[in-house]
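Annotated sample (chain length 249).
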Amino acid sequence: MKIMVPVKRVVDYNVNVRVKSDETGVELANVKMSMNPFDETAVEEAIQQVEAGTADEVVLVSIGPSKAQETLRHGIAMGADRGILIETDDIIEPLSVAKLLQKIVYEEKPDLVITGKQAIDDDCNQTGQMLASLLNWPQATFAFKLKIEGEEAIVTREVDGGLQTVALTLPAVVTTELRLNEPRYVSLPSLMKAKKKPLDRRDIAEFEVDIHPRLEVLKTTPPARRAYGIKVKTVAELVDKLRNEARVL
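Output written by the structure step:
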């Protein structure tokens, strides 16, 4: 069984994000970038399926600038077999991403696509659902647990009321929660070995997908500064402050 995992290069989750002075977006110059954490969870899950003997190949796909090769190499160092980079310097919206991934699915013919439920830069939570719709494949979102049984994927997913278990007939699309697993540590020797594994670089133009943005960002502003906290000496003073000074949100 072949598993395909789309991965995205984003600002590292440990970085304190700063808005540009002209409010046109987030500052990306000289900022540490890494694999989207939800996608890293998806890569780990795919590798665990190989280790369990239910899959035999993991293919990573990324859409972005040339530097996204680093993100793919990280996933390959984790244990993926190869990577595909669709190169573009443009910002690609979720629907266009889904259409590009659809083209790769038609080429690679994976039995399962596992992707993070969302990216931490835009929080759209749309690509997996759109891809499943374009492919007309069954889907399970917010996966908390995944098990492959023959021609089915048994997925326990997080829902508002708790957990829900569904059975999907393969091929299918699954989007992951962070609680699905804990991604493995990537050592320097693994990164060095990953440089020798296949990485196919493709130009976005060859896919003939309309990537023209449908949305225009007019302005990006940082959140308002939070007021400093204060110390109180007694419970009575705390209750008084909460009763008379606390703002109703």
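Annotation: The chain has a mean pLDDT of 91.
Annotation: The two ends are 50 Å apart (CA to CA).
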